[in-house]
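Hey, can you fold this one?
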Amino acid sequence: MPEDALLRRTELPRPDVTAEDAAAILEGWYGLTGPIVELGSQQDRNYRVDTDAGRFVLKICRADYATVELKAQNAAMRHIAAKPSAPRVPCIMPGLSGEDILFLDIGSDSYQIRLLDYLDGEPLTRRKYLSVETVAGLGRIAGKLALALADFEHPGLARELQWDLRRAGPVGLHLLKSMTDRHLQRRLAEALAGSVRRIQVLAPELRLQAIHHDVTDDNVVAQPDGNGRLIPDGVIDFGDILKGWLVADLAVTCASLLHHADGDPFFLLPAIQAFHEIYPLNEAELAALWPLIVARATILVASSEQQLAIDPDNDYVIGNIEHERVIFDVAVSVPLALMEEAIRQALGKGVEPAPLVFGPLLPDIDPQNIQMVDFGTTGAALKEENWSIPDIEHALLDAAATDTGSASTRYGEYRLTRTRVLSAEAPETFALNVTLRLPAGTVVAAPFDGQLVRNGDMFVLAGADMSLHLSGRDPEIDSLPATFSAGDRLGFVADTGDGRGLLTAQLCRVPGLVPPSFVRPAHAAAWSALCPSPSAMLGVDCDAPAPESADLLARRESHFARPQKNYYNSPPQIERGWKEHLFDVEGRAYLDMLNNVTILGHGHPRLSAAVARQWSLLNTNSRFHYASVAEFSERLAGLAPQGLDTVFLVNSGSEANDLALRLAWAASGAKNMLCLLEAYHGWSVASDAVSTSIADNPQALTTRPPWVHPVVSPNTYRGEFRGPGSTEEYVSAVLPTLEKINATGEGLAGFICECVYGNAGGIPLPPGYLQAVYAMVRERGGLCIADEVQVGYGRLGHYFWGFEEQGVVPDIITVAKGMGNGHPLGAVITTRAIADALEKEGYFFSSSGGSPVSSVVGMTVLDVLRDEGLQENARIVGDHLKARLEALCQRFPLAGAVHGMGLYLGLEFVRDRVTLSPATQETAAICNRLRDLGVIMQPTGDHLNVLKIKPPLCLSIESADFFADMLTRVLSEGW
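Sure. Predicted structure:
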């Protein structure tokens, strides 16, 4: 087809064929009837029909398109369907006459008609968020399809098509001529020109074959995997098939992903990796890929603008044009060179550059006198919250330069000073430059030959293969541009008013590019290849050590016992905390909505100071006589109900519950213990024995020793009896177990339970449940143990202890976790008589339980809880957050119920509100998506389908809202 005919094709409106016309065609030529729905298309008409024989798509195109092209589409689908590992594709349905293609006149126009079966599945277009697995799945299916077409030949593939990226230049220019938005026209033209220049150089090495050329989020159908994530498995719409560049096929697929990328072009790298694994690209194709993506984005926008001018009522184009503009904006938001490097690195084809050899930038400064300042996550100069202070970097540079006169930041450092808390996106923390504090007037010399030019406040020394970007320099000469040789004086460090100055230096390999000073961690490796370290010209190693998170995780797995699990399959390396925030080694801030251990928040200065002081004085065991153990025991007893005045101090909740069971045995003279199903009480032999949660131990229900007697869990949401009126049924369910114990004559030692069902997600027990069960237990000589390890100590907001909500007083209270704010500290509070009963078995001793440091920790935690009003904060913020979460249950069917109170909450996800089928896989995927958005969250419950919401009690309203907003985003956009 001559090129002018191709260009005329771009101006064709869609066929003027109504739904009524389509119904008549279907009945008269295919013998099919049924409801009809129009499907989108840019230049064709497509109608879906539901019939008794199945669901089909009627495809109508103008006679201007050569019939041989339609025959090529049909032949390609049959060719692919015959390949065992190829994706699903539609089947061609012949008309009543047996023909695959019908030629019909409708009105004054001639059309070509085909019928295909309809591929069931969900398209990806309207999904704002696509998971990494989905993105990779799209690349994988594109690779499989391209591989299936590699041996396909047909005369109809030799066609002239506006979407053929081999013709992006002339087609783009033609489309741009008629645009009225001059600003957009100029942007499109510049992007197209730059990409075409790069493609032309590489074109001879780009492989040709049959390609679908439209494997996009619109033209695949997907099925949900076990986690509810869509994985493409079928391809539709072969209207753009032709013989073209193999890599152009991938470029089209990649471009379609960019409107899902939330502004991040690196988002589509998993698709490229997956395609490459199926169908490896050559070197020229790797280099051409991003320019082709830019060209595709340009053609998309320009074509839609023109089509709307021709056909302003085209709903398909109207619905797509906004995300096509987003595709273009993301595609041109980064330099071609950056994405070429990122693609190469993603495929393991990055090239290690040769070592740099430069002259000195600061010839009069002894490199050994330059003090390096650490602004990383573990930097010693960053204390408490000073990392968030504006200009803290300059202040700390000033302090560091006091002795030698010179100090510098580090290149390649993930700076905590650049973090942002409560951010859905990873901040730009990775430094591509260095800033030096130097004496004013310090000579700045050219490290290589080049031409010096001014770029705003920046001076750029442009060399043959490297540019140096400088700020904070007084120029040697005012007339620019000027040429300098290596060693020539470029100027002096400008005085900032105190006899000192700041000089910022950055290198860049890409001519004409003004690189950013800081980039996101995910972009750091690619940008580092373009903007190398300035160490060679400073004469000192100014590079920050790279994090070794993967190596550390491997070492952990090699030597840290496997039963000791970590959160997440690919966990961030967390090395710092402040209040309710955690920070990883890349400066990413996370909102900690999980950590019920650090009840005060992370890094509390008052606790740090108290611990440091006590360590400097004394730390020993509780057999020695010292003040803090007496004072702390007294305060704990004062928090308990009257009569519970005796305290044991231990190191953990497991130890506390283990000791409580021993006390029950000793005081009662019996061994049998009553406990609840779905419960967790610890890892020691005794505390594990009464732990029945199958999430923590899949064998829990079949491995309990004979003295353990679990009773039905009073789960008022999904249990055998439901709702607040289920108390009588759950109490009655305990009686058979008690009667069975009575029949043995062995007696009952006691009953242990959490007073708010923490392990099940904070579900309150039915009203009056503990009053009735405690009475039955005590009638049989047993003791009642309240496990407050997770839910007590003010976390519930409305109550200090969980048992207060039930209106009961236990015989033994166990507490740990929050009472030490992360320090190993636990306690058992009981009566003097029960405590003394243990002496029948000998004395009790815990080496570090109640040590001076532990006692000071415990008292300081209580002081801060009181002085900062953290229980009241838990009530106010918890009630606010619970209301936000309950609102989600009204919007999203997956959100079944909100449990708990204060800052011990659980959000339970179910696949069905009636059957309460647990959404276990979805919950895990939601937690992973929340992590990506800056929130630490994990599931709990026997089905692992409940979000375990138990943050530090200092949680602010702002942080609670951020969590609720991110959760809303995940439930809205997907995971």
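The chain has a mean pLDDT of 94. Let me know if you want another pass with a different chain boundary.
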